[in-house]
Write a structure and sequence with these properties.
2 helices, alpha+beta, 26% helix, 32% strand
Length: 66
């Protein structure tokens, strides 16, 4: 509901919307009309990380408001 509320405001003002998402949230944004622009994966072994950090960058054009 929070994503939809923010997108309603963005649509009202004709604003393009950008988000960064971790893999767990990707489907939420895709279901709200966002398009995947890029996925970045970074390994952090020097900081004790055992798995890569993955971030998805997405964009959504404003919907036309009647």
């Amino acid at each position: 509901m929070l994503v939809k509320s923010g997108l309603d405001i963005a649509d009202r003002y004709g604003l393009r919307t950008y988000v960064m998402s971790e893999p767990a949230g990707l489907k939420v944004y895709l279901n709200h009309g966002f398009k995947l622009v890029e996925t970045v994966s970074v390994d952090y072994p020097q900081y004790g990380g055992t798995e890569p950090l993955v971030e998805h960058f997405l964009v959504r054009e404003p919907a036309t408001v009647a």
